[in-house]
Amino acid sequence: MLQLAIIGTNWISEKFARAALQTEQFVIRGVYSRALDKARAFGEPLGATLFIDSLEELAASKEIDAVYIASPNSLHSAQAIQMMQAGKHVICEKPMASNLAQVESMLEVAKANNVVLMEAFKTAYLPNFIEAKKALANLGRLHKAHLTYCQYSSRYQKYLDGENPNTFNPEFSNGSIMDIGFYSVAAAVELFGAPTQIQASAHLLESGVDAHGSVLLRYPEFDVTLSHSKVSNSYSTSEIQGEEGSLILADFSECLGFDLYARSGERTHFETEQVENSMMYEAKAFASMILKGEMDEHATQRSLTIAHIITEVRRQTGIVFPADVNSQ
């Protein structure tokens, strides 16, 4: 069994920890938090026995094989590099880092230390999303796609009230394209690969991060439009159009199924069973890489392409993080 440590004691960390246990490939051995009481309260129900408030101590621990990082985005790179230099495998919450330069550095460290580094992008590993990707062959030549993910943030009112939540703070490399927008970018990359051209627009808050925005990804024969927002909800579907038909995704991030429309208008619904905690599939993929002793080249290239697109989107829309300066 792989001995897993968790950095971060938020809801996403608990969900991933339980998903990792569900794979039956991991045990939760340790939890890091700056407050030991939080680490203990988080980790004891998961079976953890090692509670740590020092990253140096975590990196040095012989009891830990792998680390899941769910700290603020701005901390991902330094923490992952520290763990990998100590011989730990790392799965890092999306986005993997603040910018492309950091992702490139992280992957270099992973290779130099012969460890696995994986970005926790669950959608690519969902059974229904995998089937949707296969179903693109039924659409003929592609021409248009629209992927939308807009979700009103529970922290937005705090921002409006004059507080400074991490969600809308450039110090933590945050904002819409780094959070909600990541899903649309990553899904497009998984489905279509790297674009030939990127055009982006965004509406920035006074804090300097984006509240919402749009991205146009151009491919040789088709365009993909991405919509993202942390200040409004969307109830519309995503669609991929080809000459022979269209594919409709109600919620591509969880992808519980999809509809395939032939050009004649005939509709076919596809849906295969998925486990309730959908993070289990990415946890299983991470375990598989560790046990094989090598990273998945497709997943690595996907992370690089995602980071390139998001970094370029921020350049075009004027979103600058302190991490960008520190990476130069």
TrEMBL record:
Residues annotated as domain GFO/IDH/MocA-like oxidoreductase: 132-247
Read off the InterPro entries from this record: Gfo/Idh/MocA-like_OxRdtase_N, GFO_IDH_MocA-like_dom, NAD(P)-bd_dom_sf
Q: Where is the Gfo/Idh/MocA-like oxidoreductase N-terminal domain?
A: 3-120
What Pfam families does its record include?
A: GFO_IDH_MocA (PF01408), GFO_IDH_MocA_C3 (PF22725)
One annotated GO molecular function is: nucleotide binding
| Coiled-coil segments on the chain, per record | none
Enumerate the PANTHER family for this protein: PTHR43054, SCYLLO-INOSITOL 2-DEHYDROGENASE (NADP(+)) IOLU
Q: What is this protein called?
A: Gfo/Idh/MocA family protein
